[in-house]
């Protein structure tokens, strides 16, 4: 039976635009989704690039004006993959036009802006999702399942790192395509919003809300050439951030992110220690989940490395056969699959804008704590 078509308007043709387009292309081949995504229109600043992107990915049309995507009656879903400073304006306009919305992380530049977005989408009653893709790594989803089953018992510690090394050179500019993440006006913050937001989203999903934080940040390179002005300008982002926190369930959190950890490209790791068991995961070995259970007989007790590829593992029944892995791009396919299934049922897909606002509030509290050198309470979303 022919599936109902769902027209996608993608805004932003960078790295994230590719991950989302790839997901829409693949999702129907691997998951039994109720819609067939149609790549209706892609929007980006440069016409030549937008045209080439449309041809490469099979978009029916292209534009350089995002308003045209929103005004297009045929577009059902607006997918926002542009720098953080434009998320709010586009999302609020898309909500007013009654479109379903997928938005890249972090939700906004800050909580104030994020709240306006939540108000707009909730008032319009439109489907919404923020793309925190790492939740949908099968091993990460499995970790959440093990915690929810109570296997760890009371949780004492949650530890997460997200380490990179690509901005160490003072020659890396700020602003422009690819390096907008270093421009505070476009990004809102540095590693806090870009990388720690991932860790915070996963952590609160697995271990509940964070109540208070104590942070320190550093900007190692104080000035960089700005691509748009051609001038050397002050750098306003945090290059590195470390924070402690208290979760509402009484456990202690310890988070670190930097783009100055030479040798690490995208080392996202977490470890959770509970009264009975511990879990550890590493993005560089993403299909494995490390698990230690103190209730095992002592002569065989030790850290197990679970190869998360069997068909009864989250999402894996839709891919290959046991032992054969999947990777980064598949997290976006899983996200698209969940979103399409829930959309047909009128159910929300997590993380919603409101859930992403909770992450935004933690980021805000982290940055305020670093600035004021004091513990900060986190606002509830
Ligand atoms: C930055 O380098 C970045 O691309 C983030 O923006 C992504 O969210 C993260 O998944 C990988 O690193």
Q: How would you summarize what this structure contains?
A:
With 381 residues, this protein is of the alpha/beta class. Helices cover 33% and strands 26% of the residues.
Q: What is the terminal separation in angstroms? A: 42 Å
Task: Please mark out the parts with pLDDT under 50 across 5 or more consecutive residues, or reply none.
Answer: none
Average residue-wise pLDDT: 98
What is the count of DSSP helices, taking H or I runs of 4+ residues?
10
Radius of gyration: 21 Å
Q: Which oligomerization state do the chains in this entry correspond to?
A: single chain
Bound molecules: alpha-L-sorbopyranose
Question: How would you explain this protein's 3D organization?
Answer:
Helix content is 33%, strand content 26%. The chain has 381 residues and is of the alpha/beta class. Strands 16-15-14-13-7-12-11-8-17 form a nine-stranded mixed sheet. It is globular and about 65 Å long. The termini are far apart. The site of alpha-L-sorbopyranose has 4 residues, from loops.
Write the layout of secondary structure elements.
Layout: E1 4-11, H1 15-30, E2 35-43, H2 47-57, E3 61-63, H3 66-71, E4 77-80, H4 87-96, E5 100-104, H5 111-124, E6 128-131, H6 138-148, E7 155-163, H7 184-187, H8 191-207, E8 210-218, E9 223-225, E10 232-234, E11 240-247, E12 252-258, E13 267-274, E14 277-282, E15 288-293, E16 304-307, H9 328-345, H10 353-372, E17 376-377
Parallel strand pairs: 1-2, 1-4, 2-3, 4-5, 5-6, 7-12
Antiparallel strand pairs: 7-13, 8-11, 8-17, 9-10, 11-12, 13-14, 14-15, 15-16
Alpha-L-sorbopyranose (SOE) binds next to loops.
């Amino acid at each position: 039976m022919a599936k109902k078509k769902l027209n996608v308007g993608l805004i932003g043709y960078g790295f994230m635009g590719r991950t989302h387009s790839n997901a829409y292309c693949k999702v129907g081949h691997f998951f039994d989704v109720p819609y067939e995504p149609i790549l209706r229109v892609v929007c980006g600043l440069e016409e030549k690039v937008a045209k080439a992107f449309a041809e490469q990915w099979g978009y029916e049309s292209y534009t350089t004006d995002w308003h045209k995507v929103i005004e297009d009656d045929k577009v059902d879903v607006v997918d926002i993959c542009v720098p953080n400073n434009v998320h709010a304006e586009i999302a609020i306009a898309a909500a007013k036009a009654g479109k379903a919305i997928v938005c890249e992380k972090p939700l906004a530049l800050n909580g104030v802006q994020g709240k306006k977005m939540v108000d707009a989408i909730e008032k319009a009653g439109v489907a919404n999702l923020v793309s925190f893709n790492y939740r949908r790594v099968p091993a990460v989803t499995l970790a959440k399942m093990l915690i929810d089953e109570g296997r760890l018992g009371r949780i004492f510690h949650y530890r997460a790192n997200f380490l990179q090394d690509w901005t160490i050179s003072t020659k890396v500019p700020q602003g422009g395509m690819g390096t907008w993440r270093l421009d505070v006006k476009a990004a809102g913050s540095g590693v806090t919003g870009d990388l720690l937001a991932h860790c915070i989203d996963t952590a609160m999903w697995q271990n509940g809300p964070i109540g208070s934080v104590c942070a320190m940040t550093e900007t190692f390179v104080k000035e960089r050439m700005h691509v748009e002005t051609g001038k050397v300008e002050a750098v306003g982002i945090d290059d590195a951030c470390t924070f402690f926190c208290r979760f509402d369930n009484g456990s202690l959190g310890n988070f670190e992110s930097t783009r100055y950890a030479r040798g690490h490209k995208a080392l996202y790791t977490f470890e959770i220690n509970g009264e009975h068991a511990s879990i550890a995961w590493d993005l560089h070995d993403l299909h494995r989940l490390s698990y230690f259970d103190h209730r095992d007989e002592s002569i065989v007790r030790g850290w197990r490395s679970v190869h998360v590829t069997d068909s009864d593992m989250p999402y894996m029944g839709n891919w290959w056969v046991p032992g054969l892995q999947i990777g980064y791009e598949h997290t976006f396919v899983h996200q698209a699959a969940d979103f399409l299934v829930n959309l047909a049922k009128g159910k929300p897909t997590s993380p919603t804008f409101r859930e992403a606002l909770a992450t935004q509030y933690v980021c805000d509290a982290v940055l305020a704590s670093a600035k004021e050198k004091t513990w900060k309470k986190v606002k509830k979303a």
